[in-house]
TrEMBL record:
The keyword Nucleotide-binding applies. SUPFAM superfamilies: P-loop containing nucleoside triphosphate hydrolases (SSF52540). Keywords: ATP-binding, Nucleotide-binding. This is ATP-binding cassette domain-containing protein. Gene3D superfamilies: P-loop containing nucleotide triphosphate hydrolases. Residues 2-249 form the ABC transporter domain. One of its GO terms (molecular function) is ATP binding. SMART domains: AAA.
Length: 249
């Protein structure tokens, strides 16, 4: 459903500080595949994700999402397919607004699955039901401002709001990097559940090799703008956690 064909991205072309961030990557990601990307700093992971999201436009190559050539389409024109969650929990939601109002805003912006902005009480009830599925007890705090929640709680709500869009692709760039270990675990489990429940195609970039091992149906390793390892679900299932550490040996 995502076909990346011989994609290249060079920054500062022709200058002394030229970087070939993505160096001719071809990658086909199937519908409902959950792809994990690992690789050392500067290997081009975020650039690849930006190319899929449309916040970076390639110098060469094509990107097809669901039979639509999106190669030259700006990111806001790809939002019908793509939702994105960043490292920083603050960037996904408005701190001063209540949980309920954040969902209201999201509902106005997009057409979220299973939410109708009609009668107030009905909307409130729907939001409560959605939030209850996170299993964090936040359904009883929907009048509380987002800023009073923990990073993990905010990130879980951001995830929920983003996947309730009509989107089919979820991009996660180190979504737990700014969280304490317990919150990180909650957010990863939430992401995994939402990806399965909403039948999403997902790409996760992580530095956490345990998460890379435990989550996802396929794993790739990037180095210097290229894919140097690619394990499908069968091969990933037989991978040992230590093998992953060896990749970085
Ligand atoms: N906007 C940019 N301008 C110039 N160089 C960039 C830009 N974005 C990324 N780079 C460079 O491209 C390379 C790959 O970066 P990135 O994709 O962020 O790697 P990763 O996410 O794997 O750490 C790095 O050398 C980085 O400095
Ligand atoms: Mg990065």
């Amino acid at each position: 459903m995502i076909a990346i064909n011989d994609i290249h991205k060079v920054f500062n072309k022709g200058k002394a500080n030229q970087v070939n961030a993505v160096n001719g990557i071809t990658l086909n990601i199937k519908s409902e595949e959950f792809l994990v990307i690992v690789g050392s700093n500067g290997s081009g992971k975020t650039t690849l994700l930006n190319l899929v999201a449309g916040s970076v436009i390639p110098d060469k190559g094509t990107i097809i999402i669901d039979d639509n050539d999106v190669t030259k389409l700006a990111d806001h024109h790809r939002s019908q397919w793509i939702a994105r969650v960043f490292q920083n929990p603050i960037s996904g939601t408005a701190s001063d607004l209540s949980i309920l109002d954040n969902f209201r805003l999201a509902a106005i912006r997009t057409k979220p699955k299973g939410l109708t902005i009609g009668i107030n009480d009905q909307f409130k009830q729907q939001v409560k039901e959605k939030i209850a599925t996170l299993g964090m007890g936040l359904e009883n705090k929907i009048e509380q401002s987002m800023g009073t929640l923990s990073g993990g709680q905010r990130q879980a709500l951001t995830l929920l709001m983003s996947v309730m869009d009509s989107c089919k692709v979820l991009l996660l760039d180190e979504p737990t990097a700014a969280l304490d270990p317990r919150s990180a675990e909650v957010v990863m489990r939430t992401a995994d559940k939402l990806i399965a429940d909403f039948k999403l195609t997902a790409i996760l970039i992580t530095h956490n090799l345990k998460d890379a091992y435990n989550y996802g149906t396929r794993i790739i390793q990037m180095s210097e703008g290229l894919i140097i390892n690619d394990l499908d679900s069968t091969k990933k299932a037989t991978l040992k956690q230590n093998d992953l550490f060896d990749w970085f040996g």
